[in-house]
Inverse folding.
């Protein structure tokens, strides 16, 4: 059984600083997803540079075929310890999860991973090893569908020290809080955002340290198939729709011309839905056998805006209120962000004259740019993207 890993992260920046001293990098190496969480010493620009160097060096070396041992030794040798505080310039955690279910964890001075299965915390056995004189903990384990793994920086467990809590939140408290929050439909983006929101509340919205939460949810493969635009050659209409309908997973059609083509070839009816809550987004529709049918450029443009806001770490209360709205763009963004692990795009090359009108805003003229933006955002968010052109 092939598994899919959905990873999301959110951060808080120390109050009074412009840059966060924590950094996350997620890369896909063959059939393995690798996530690196680095925490630079101190805060601000210096910590951000140190954390960025650490996460980039590790993820790049692993992507180029280096072993975890080589990457760790490089970091240890490249970033010496602070002579004043006798601390490493950057701590880090490396989480490797393969599609076959194998897991591997390396941690250097970060809070230990929180592993939750069926509502209970699992304590993973670890091995202490030394690389270049620095001690790290290694763990090998196996994951199953429904497992949730959370890596945190120490700003999370120190939340509320001296303010709302005497001694901070503690890892055990964080783990217990997560156990109460997780349910079968939990998504990595919403869990990460909820955890960071709770951390901000404990800090009274004035974080005393940079805080980052990285959440990995293990799923069975969830493929989303999105068709946008009829083919450049009308003779390819039937082939495009046939391949789209034969594909497994969720099926979405974007665009009025696309919906009419699909309905015509399937001998079904397009039914417009008039209960959407945003008058600026054209109403969605329905076709029997299709999970979601939306308008084209306006809906895609709003969907891209929502996904970009999430990628840029703006997933606060207002973001999820927009994401939970009852309109085509919000529903499409929810599926792509919270349900999708793999996106297959069916892209037609037919030109819609309306989109070439020079009197329209630039972002309404070319649907292809919106599709490219959508694919790029999902790739940045760790989703696998495949494109089929017609």
């Amino acid at each position: 059984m092939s598994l899919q890993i959905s990873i999301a992260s959110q951060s808080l920046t120390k109050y009074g600083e412009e840059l966060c001293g924590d950094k996350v990098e997620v890369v896909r190496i063959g059939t393995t997803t690798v996530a690196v969480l680095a925490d630079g010493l101190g805060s601000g620009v210096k910590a951000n540079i140190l954390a960025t160097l650490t996460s980039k060096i590790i993820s790049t070396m692993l992507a180029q075929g280096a072993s975890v041992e080589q990457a760790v030794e490089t970091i240890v040798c490249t970033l010496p310890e602070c002579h004043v505080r006798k601390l490493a310039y950057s701590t880090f955690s490396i989480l490797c999860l393969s599609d076959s279910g194998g897991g591997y964890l390396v941690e250097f001075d970060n809070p230990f991973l929180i592993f939750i299965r069926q509502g209970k915390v699992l304590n993973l056995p670890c091995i202490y090893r030394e690389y270049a004189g620095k001690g790290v903990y290694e763990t090998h384990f196996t994951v199953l569908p429904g497992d949730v793994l959370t890596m945190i920086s120490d700003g999370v467990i120190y939340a509320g020290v001296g303010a709302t809590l005497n001694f901070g939140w503690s890892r055990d408290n964080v783990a217990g809080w997560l156990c109460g929050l997780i349910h079968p439909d939990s998504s990595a983006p919403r869990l990460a955002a909820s955890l960071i929101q709770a951390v901000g509340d404990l800090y009274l919205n004035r974080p005393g340290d940079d805080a980052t939460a990285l959440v990995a949810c293990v799923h069975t493969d969830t493929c989303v198939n999105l068709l946008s635009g009829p083919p450049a050659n009308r003779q390819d209409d039937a082939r495009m729709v046939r391949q789209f309908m034969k594909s497994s997973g969720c099926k979405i059609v974007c665009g009025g011309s696309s919906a009419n083509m699909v309905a015509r070839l399937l001998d079904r009816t397009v039914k417009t839905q008039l209960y959407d809550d945003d008058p600026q987004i054209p109403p969605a529709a329905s076709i029997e056998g299709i999970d979601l049918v939306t308008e084209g450029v306006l809906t895609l443009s709003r969907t891209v805006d929502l996904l970009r806001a999430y990628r840029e770490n703006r997933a606060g209360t207002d973001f999820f209120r927009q994401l939970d709205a009852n309109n085509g763009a919000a529903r499409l963004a929810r599926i792509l962000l919270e349900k999708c692990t793999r996106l297959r795009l069916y892209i037609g090359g037919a030109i819609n004259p309306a989109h070439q009108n020079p009197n329209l805003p630039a972002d309404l003229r070319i649907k292809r740019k919106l599709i490219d933006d959508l694919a790029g955002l999902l790739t940045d968010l760790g989703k696998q993207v495949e494109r089929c052109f017609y």
